[in-house]
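Lab manual, section 2.4: Encoding a predicted structure.

Procedure: take the sequence of the chain (173 residues), apply the prediction step described in section 2.3, and record the output as structure tokens. A sample record is shown.
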Amino acid sequence: MLHTNMNVKEQSVSVAGVGQNLFEHSKSVELAGKRGLIVELFPSIFGASERMSARAISRFLEETHGIKLSAVTITKALNDPKRSWNLFFDTIEPYIETYENWDKSAKREEFLYDDKRFRKIQFPGRDFVRKQLLKFQIGQAMNVLVEKWYSIDYQTRLKARPYLAERILGKVK
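Recorded output:
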């Protein structure tokens, strides 16, 4: 009888030890990058989801790029596109605001979908570079927008437009 109690105690110590070990390990694992990855990749995942399943997207990311995002994580993001787009917009909004502060005529609901206008402003030549040389933030904003927004397929950006419009209206209220 005593032996059985010892086994139970050993098991509970063992389970407690496993739990402590798991918790300690969780502190050493880099989670911020993984959580942010679904946000960063969401526009592409959103676009790809028209032709691919979440499982196929997950498999492609792992096999081609070594990125492990589960099909469950992908499905969760796709099932709540409003939340996912808003998280993505959070990453680029400071750069949009910097650009808008510089170009007072820019309205995000227009310039985010006018590739020609934005690229014309971005790469107009040496005069622009000389005038804006000290305005590092503007150059940085433009670079981030090119990398994170204008690199997204135009049709996918158009599908994000209602979510952006709702976000803008929500902030105005």
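Check your result against the sample. Residues 6-11 have pLDDT under 50 and may be disordered.
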